[in-house]
Every structure is written in C-alpha cells, then in structure tokens.
Amino acid sequence: MSQEHLHICSHYQLVFGLRWFPLLGASTTQQARVLSKQYRARASVVIGRHFMCVGLSQKELGQKTTRISAAVCFAYLFPRGVHAAIYQLAEQLYWLVVVHEGTPIRQGDVLFHTLDQAQQRVHEFKSHYTTLVLQGETLSIQALLPLINPRLRAKAQLKPIRQRSWAWATACVIGIGGLYWSYTPRVSVAAIEPPVVIVDPYTTYWQQQARPVSNHRALQALLHYWQQLPLSLARWELSTSTCQIQTSAWNCTHEFKPTAETATVMDFKQEHPQHWRLTQANLQHIQTQDTVSFTVTGARAWHDMHTHQQQFLAQLQRLKPAFQSMVLKDPVVYGKAAVERARAQADPNATFPQPVPIFEQALHLKGPLRSVALLLDFDERFYWEKASLTVNKKTKASLKHSVLQAQLHGVTYVRN
Hints:
Pfam families: PAP_PilO (PF06864). 28% of the residues lie in helices and 33% in strands. It is of the alpha+beta class.
C-alpha cells in the first residue's frame, strides 16, 4: 500500500506511511526542498541523528492542524541499533516501521492490508540487517500514544510546504500563445529545426576516466604485504610506510631510522630485500621504494543513495568503535570543472537532460593495523587510494592503539 493513514488524537493527528529519502552532505535543506517539489509533497519533516532524512506527506495540512509523524516518534525511542515493529491500526490495516540509529529508513514506514505482507517485508529487511530486532507484531497503537510527550511532538511535527500558484499567469501565457499561433503561417517544424543531440556530461566524463577498481582486493594485498614487512634491518628500524594507488599496484615508500650510532648504510644494503629500490640514504634516515601488485577486476562503479545509506553508511557506523578516528567528508560533484567545460564546448544543437551529478565522498580512517581487516567487507562499495603505516613501539596497546598504526584514505561514488 502507498496511501497515508491518519489517527486523530485529542490535540494532534498521527500520520502513518510517509515517504522517506536520505539527505547527503551539508545542503540538507536544499535537498529536502528539491525532493518535496519533485514528489509534489504538501508537508515534510526532517530528522537525523547520525544520518539525515526527510519524510514527505501528500496530504494537505490545514493552518491550525498539528500533524506528527508516527515513524519519528518510534525512531526516538530507539536511538541505537536497527529496530522494527508491526502495529495493527484497524481490522485490515497494519503499519510496519523500521528505524536505524534513531532514523526511519526508506520503505520503513509502510501500511499493509494483511499481517502476512508486513511479516514478509520484515523478513526482507532481516536479510539486509542481520542485527534487526523486532519489537513485536500486532501491537496496539494505544501503547505508543502515552510515550509521545510534547517535546517529542515538536520534533516529529510536519511543516507545510508553500505551493506557489501560477494558474493566472499560465492562463495568460496560454491565451497569448494561442492567438499568436492562430495568426502564424504553418511551417513544417522538421524542416527548420536541426537534429537534437542529447548529452549526459557526467556519464561521458565518468567513462573517459575509467578509473580502475581498488577495493577489497587492493586492501587485502596491502595488508598481506605489511604483515610481512621487516620492522628492523641491520640496526635500522622502520618508521613509516606510505603507499599510493597507481592503476593496478600500490607504490610504497618505506622510511627507516637508525637505532644505534654504529648503523651504516652499507649494512642496510646487504640485508634489505633485493627488489627494494634505494632512493635516499644518509646517517639520519634511509628511504626505499617497492611495488605491491593486485588484481584489477574492472572499472569503478557508483551506487544509488538508498544503497549508500542503508549499506555503506550503516556499515561504517558499526565499525567506528574499532578506529581512533573516522572522518566522512561531504560529497562533492565528481569532475565538476571538466563537466562544465564539456557543456561550454558542446554542440550548439546539443540538449542536456536534467542534471544528475555523480558525487564523490571521501573517507579518512585512523586506527590499529588489526582493525583494517574489518574493512575488507566493503566489497565493491569503496575504493582505496592512499594508505600509511606508522611504527611506534612506545604506544600502550589498547582497543584503538597498537605499535602498528594505519591510516587509510578512500572514496565512494553516489548517484541518485
């Protein structure tokens, strides 16, 4: 079912069945406004603890009507984890609500005619969220109402969306256009209009770049390499190892520092692996280079916002306790300058469709080397570009610290 349902209370109306959409980056207000216009919504509510999203309503909101979202009220009761519940609103009306980290998810505020349909949807959600907790089935909505206090009502209240009426201006334009058309000689449009060329500059730029995959295979190869990396050679200790992605290999630079005054470059040359290339050498430090190859399976791909929020961002949240820091940058348009140049240099007869940009979102991680193995589960959703390993034997080992500390930088791509 797709319709909304209203439950009338004493001082407000409780609405069920809103359409929820994720909001990415910093311009959440602008994104919510665009989505409201796109789906012709009459009212909306924005909520977010760790992730922002907007709920859209198709029902007209009166001037003195206080309408609140039931999904938001349920979400604030469970700020951690993935939770779901099935409420019976009427004899043949069931409401399924699913929230993640205190935020309703897409397709998680739905009405059904039968209990079997709602249970089937819960089963589908459990295949994606293995930690989902079902609070109950055929619950009564009366059990939820006492928990909705005034503070919660204020957070869950829907705001009306002002609709601009252009009916009068549109009628005038149509009338003038009709008069002009009636006095214009009929000429074949095909004879005077040049052929239209439709161009998607974002897809064109993406295909031109064809950036190779550097996902879990690349990270797995680097982890295997680091685990076998010698930490000391001939009274020289490894200080840092910095690696950068180059097509189908990591280009790594290792820096060693002396541990004794008797350490010499000649002794180091005799013990270091033969395939290492010595780039700098003096009494203070030695720098070497090496290459770590991995298998490239194709070009990179982007994902839709729903997959990005429900899989990638949710997985990051679960892994966050294992790292010292986890910084997810705001999304930026991939190749924005190149796309703008392509528009300026395009065929005069070319027609560009509604812009659907490809967003690139960067992630910076810092934590112990043992935690990096947890990132292998990202599969095709993330691509690594730079990594570094730091050795600090004075560090006291703990959950987020170890002698071997790793920093990783990578990106993911989103297109709605």
